[in-house]
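Entry type: protein chain
Record version: 2
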Amino acid sequence: MSAGSGWDRQEFAAVGADYEHRGAVTEECIEIWKHAWTEPWLDWHGRFYEIAEVSLEPKPEQKPRPPIVFGAVTEIGARRAARTSDGLYPMFLDAYADPGRFDQLRESVLREGSAWGTTSPASGSTPSPRAWSRRPWKDAGAR
């Protein structure tokens, strides 16, 4: 599963979504997914969403849940990935870009992950962010 907070104000305006709180909304959505994938019934009372007595079926085959990879190119996005997700995908939109241009994000992920006690909540291990983005889909449970 992939997630990201978005960056284009016009996209948010087009659907009437709150651009200023997009990061917090994304974090809450990720937590909702985690609960929906792992609990029989979801009762969620958050800052942005209220969900009562909902069940997501069928549950994902990956246990405890599918891996979540967060797409970001900023330090705050890297920190959000470390807090909420199993990996960071620093998106390369330019085929000729220096592949090391996002190396500073690795340090942000590792610092934030340490502060939260892990950098890979689903696996319980601490792979490097580069390994997360290069991990074969099959190893991640995809079929």
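Comment: The chain has one domain: 2-134.
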